[in-house]
Structure formats: structure tokens, C-alpha cells
Design goal:
Length: 138
């Protein structure tokens, strides 16, 4: 029952997860650095920093091809939209934050178009079955 870990996802799906996750981390880091340099230190701007850190973690999990990253990506879209609305409400426009929100939407659509969620769940199920099979033998 041993299945190679890379055989579940196609090369295109693997690249989408890995490179998409890395680019998401870099884009979010750009937003975070811009946020720390240009925003005025208030309670509202301090609340936005954990949102950026959460988004970084989500994209790292996506690059590592963890099934939970897809659920967290949906939550991250909402957080990204909220941050964009906060910027807009205070008469500020950040092109990088807008790009991050658009990137979230594109990644979510691309992952679902490539059927990555089903493949990651199948990969997780096979790994769990293999781990359970070896549990009694070691």
C-alpha cells in the first residue's frame, strides 16, 4: 500500500502549491513591511499585524501542501478583504494590499480549478493509512 508522496499531485498542481505559496509569503511580507513603515501606530493598525502574520503562515502551509491550508486560505481571503476595507475607510490606498487581496482570490480559484483540495485530502488519507499500517509493525 506504499504510495510515493509525490504521485498524488501532478507536477502542475505541485508547482501551483509551492510557487504560489512562496509568492504569497513574499507578497504578504511586502505588505507587512510597508505596514510597519508607513502606518501610524494606533490600536487599529496594531490589530492588522496578526492578520498579515496569519496570512504568511497560510501561504507557508500551502507551499508545504498541507490540506488545512485550503480552509485557512478562505479565512485569509476574508482577513485580506477586511484589511483592504480598513485601508480604504481611512482614505489610504495601498497597491500592494490590493494585489494581495487579488492574489488570494486568484490562488483560491486556481487551486479549485486544478482540483488540488481533493488531491490533498486523498494524499492525507493515504499517508494516514500507511502510518496506521506501519504502527503495529514497528
Amino acid at each position: 500500500m506504499s504510495v510515493a508522496k509525490h504521485s498524488i499531485l501532478t507536477e502542475r498542481q505541485t508547482n501551483l502549491c509551492e510557487y504560489g505559496g512562496v509568492f504569497g509569503v513574499l507578497l504578504t511580507l511586502t505588505c507587512l513591511i510597508q505596514h510597519m513603515i508607513f502606518t501610524i501606530n494606533t490600536w487599529l493598525t496594531q490589530l492588522m499585524i496578526p492578520g498579515y502574520l496569519f496570512t504568511i503562515v497560510v501561504f507557508i502551509l500551502l507551499a508545504l501542501k498541507k490540506p488545512v491550508s485550503l480552509i485557512l486560505l478562505i479565512i485569509s481571503v476574508v482577513i485580506s478583504l477586511t484589511m483592504q476595507l480598513i485601508w480604504t475607510r481611512h482614505q489610504a490606498i495601498s497597491l500592494v494590499v490590493i494585489c494581495l487581496f487579488i492574489y488570494h482570490i486568484i490562488m483560491l480559484l486556481a487551486l479549485h480549478a486544478e482540483h488540488v483540495p481533493a488531491r490533498l485530502k486523498e494524499k492525507q488519507r493515504l499517508e494516514r493509512a500507511e502510518r496506521d499500517e506501519w504502527a503495529g509493525k514497528i
